[in-house]
From TrEMBL:
UniProt-listed PANTHER family: ABC TRANSPORTER PERMEASE (PTHR43471), ABC TRANSPORTER PERMEASE PROTEIN NOSY-RELATED (PTHR43471:SF1)
GO molecular function: ABC-type transporter activity
Main location as per UniProt: membrane
A cellular component term, taken from the record's GO annotations: membrane
Keyword flag Magnesium: no
Pfam families, A to Z: ABC2_membrane_3 (PF12698), DUF3526 (PF12040)
Annotated membrane topology: Multi-pass membrane protein
Domain of life: Bacteria
Transmembrane segments: 21-40, 131-150, 177-200, 206-232, 239-258, 448-469
Localization: Membrane
Protein's organism: Pseudoxanthomonas composti
Keywords: Membrane, Transmembrane, Transmembrane helix
InterPro entries: ABC2_TM, DUF3526
Protein name as annotated: DUF3526 domain-containing protein
Length: 478
């Protein structure tokens, strides 16, 4: 063990004496710290903005005067998706998906105002978050600091001298790996410090622990890969070229190609195509505005039979309100069907992207990081699903209010005083509950992150195994 520590100490001394390496490491640590601070501030500002907008939208909805319930249906309601606490660490897909929705009757709108659509194209490359720095820049730093760890010894001839002095192959590799692992943990330290306040929040400690473990495994796997290539290369420049190529492929190319391949395998219809398909299906299931429509003609007979009357004028409730309730039920069922289709396609895309983690640990880490942070596609789909349930309940409550509180005679009247008679008290929508998004709890996020953690651990163990096998080549040079 002493020999391993001695090798590690000498390697760290060499790195410290190399001014460019020291400057690069310090800059990366500072960049991670700046990313943690700026991301936390950005998250607080965005969260505060969305809370204010949500409060204003709710106040505007409740401030409506006495009016016909169906006018409230079309007045609609804006809702905003709150940011999770760990969004400051990994923004995930939040920049690409919308963060607000307009809810109204007869329509299922999409989320709007994603940051990418409102910012420069630099946002598409990656936001300056601790996750981005650790996923992309930290491995590059390890490449520059460790590419010559073994190759340098072979190129200068000092490797033979070290082995002749009694150091074993395993001790030499273990010491070099330990030194590079210390560098990796130094890169990780600022992010860990930034995560401490989040870990103190309710239901966040386990998620933070999993994130730290996953990023540590990722960087330690890169340490093993860097040393492996260095051990198999006779010259430092050869190792550097190979490692830069590996970094470009695994960190930049594969994560970029994977979504494109998934989009080709599981083509997601455009919003326009979906709208056209929905309108086509709506004409087939029934038109509540057409008195001769077969579905609503049958619905009318069912209502009359249920109440035991011959005419809709004799119903104890407003038939127009009942038609609105039935129409919304039909259209919402159709919306749910298309939303489920899109969600299934997106989940298929995610499954295919996950297979690319066999080619790149960065893919596995990105999916794990976003899932545990609550900023992945599943979190966005959760928001859409809860928004639709809230929209449907709100609209149906208003439709039922039209059926119960507005008479058919007043609803159909056109005289000057009819508008006033068909209005209901604003107290009804002032008492309606506000939208409250319920994010996934800690156990659900941990479960979503376990496949990625398993993949990262396999990468780490496989890299260590290959590094151990490479020791035989060092022995052959003895």
């Amino acid at each position: 063990m002493r020999a391993v520590l001695r090798v590690a100490r000498e390697e760290l001394r060499f790195i410290v004496r190399t001014r460019s390496a020291t400057v690069g490491l310090v800059l990366l640590v500072l960049l991670t710290l700046v990313a943690a601070l700026t991301s936390a501030q950005h998250r607080r500002e965005v969260a505060s903005f969305r809370e204010r907008q949500q409060a204003q939208a709710q106040a505007a909805f409740e401030a409506q005067p006495d009016r016909h319930p169906h006018r409230v249906v079309h007045y609609g309601q804006f809702i905003y998706r709150p940011l999770p606490a760990l969004a400051a660490f990994d923004a995930g897909v939040d920049a690409f998906t919308g963060n607000s929705m307009f809810l109204e009757g007869h329509r299922q709108n999409t989320a709007n105002f994603g940051d990418v659509r409102q910012s420069s194209l630099l946002v598409r490359f990656g936001q300056l978050t601790p996750a981005f720095v650790l996923q992309v820049l930290a491995p590059l730093m390890l490449v520059f600091l460790g590419y010559g760890a073994i190759a340098r010894e072979q190129e200068t001839g000092t490797l033979r001298a070290l082995l002749l002095q009694g150091a074993t192959r395993g001790q030499l590799l273990a010491g070099k790996y330990l030194a590079l692992a210390v560098i990796a943990l130094v890169c990780l330290l600022p992010a860990v410090v930034g995560l401490v306040p989040v870990a103190l929040l309710p239901d966040q400690a386990a998620s933070v622990a999993l994130l730290v473990l996953a990023y540590a495994a990722y960087l330690l796997a890169w340490c093993a890969l860097v040393l492996l290539v260095s051990a198999l290369s006779r010259r430092g420049r050869d190792a550097l070229v190979l490692l830069l190529a590996a970094w470009a492929v695994m960190v930049l190319l594969v994560p970029r190609v994977a979504p494109d391949a998934a989009s080709l395998a599981y083509r997601l219809p455009t919003r326009l195509e979906t709208e056209v398909a929905i309108q086509r299906d709506l004409r087939q299931i029934g038109d509540s505005h057409d008195p001769d429509d077969p579905h609503f003609a049958a619905f009318k007979q069912q209502v009359l039979q249920r109440y035991g009357v011959q005419r809709i004028e004799d119903l104890p409730v407003n038939y127009k309100g009942l038609v609105a309730v039935e129409g919304e039920r039909l259209t919402s069922g159709l919306f749910d069907r298309y939303a489920a289709r899109d969600a299934a396609l997106q989940q298929g895309q995610n499954r295919l992207v996950r297979t690319f983690s066999l080619l790149s640990p960065t893919v596995a880490l990105r999916q794990l990081s976003a899932a545990v942070s609550g900023t992945d596609l599943a979190a966005h789909q959760r928001f859409l699903a809860q928004a639709e349930r809230y929209r449907y309940a709100l609209v149906q409550q208003l439709n039922q209010l039209q059926a119960d509180a507005v008479s058919l005679a007043d609803d159909s009247a056109q005289d000057p005083g009819a508008d006033q008679r068909k209005r209901v008290s604003s107290a009804h929508w002032q008492q309606m509950p506000a939208f409250a998004f319920r994010p996934a709890d800690s156990s659900e996020r941990l479960e979503a992150g376990l496949p990625g953690l398993t993949t990262l651990m396999l990468w780490w163990l496989a890299s260590l195994g290959l590094l151990a096998l490479s020791a035989r080549r060092l022995g052959a040079m003895r």
